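Predict structure. Input: Alpha/beta hydrolase, 298 residues.
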Amino acid sequence: MVTEQAERQSVWHVDGTLREPLLVQPTGHVAQSDRSIPIYDSGNESSAATIVLVHGSSGTARGSFWAVYPILSFTRRVVAFDLQLPADDAELTLADAVDQLRAVVAHASADGPVALVGYSFGAVVAAAYAAEQPGTIESLTLVAGWSKTDRHQLVRNELWQRLHDSDPESLQRLTLLMAYSPGFVVGRNARDWAELQAAVTRPYPAQIMRLNREIDITSGLSRIDVPTLIVGCTHDAMVPLHHARVLFGAISDARYLEIESGHAVSVERPAQLAVAIDDFSVDPREHPAGTIIPVDHA
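Output follows.
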């Protein structure tokens, strides 16, 4: 149930400059159960489907899409939201996350089915939702996602938890090491590196990280029957590439694209990712199911 409609104002001024801030102050809220979910609605009117973005384990839309959202918003209506966590460190469930997404999609789909995009943990939530309610989705894009947590991920998650509890400085270094590709890290100048370090001073929410340990949506993948784009990241140490290939093989109407990046693809390759999302959501059937899309980005 939507209790507060976001004001549909363009994120662009009439002179072509960008309105600020983006993904900092919500444009509205959506009611779900007894909660109020902050949303960021660009409001752009477009003949193409509204894009709904589902963030990753960082816990906020800004943490996952700060660079991608404004690119997509240039020509499209884009809706993002901040997942609301249970109070008092109570456990977050996948069903709860899907319910929140359902409320946001209901807000965004007034003009028709949406183009649903999930990144990392958000890809898990988006895929679980798509298996339940495909009628509200025109296309599905899963970026750096996975279907079942494996031993490799559990080892990293256990290390994350120990450092979270005892050594925040080392946790920051682990996050930087796992999030970005080696080439991206060594190519940063001192200012860029300082900004990357500052960006990870806030640890991922522990409730999401605990839920990440238990992910298993394999049984629902066969029920996804909308055109789907799977995006894998070649240097991903958080969600290694084999997870993307499993999704590609399990979803019948899927296409596959690899981007040369670490897990933080929205930081390393924001323009390439935004173009891939936009192109696919405009014409989801341009490539037949089963296509491995060639990379034509420099």
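Residues 1-18 have pLDDT under 50 and may be disordered.
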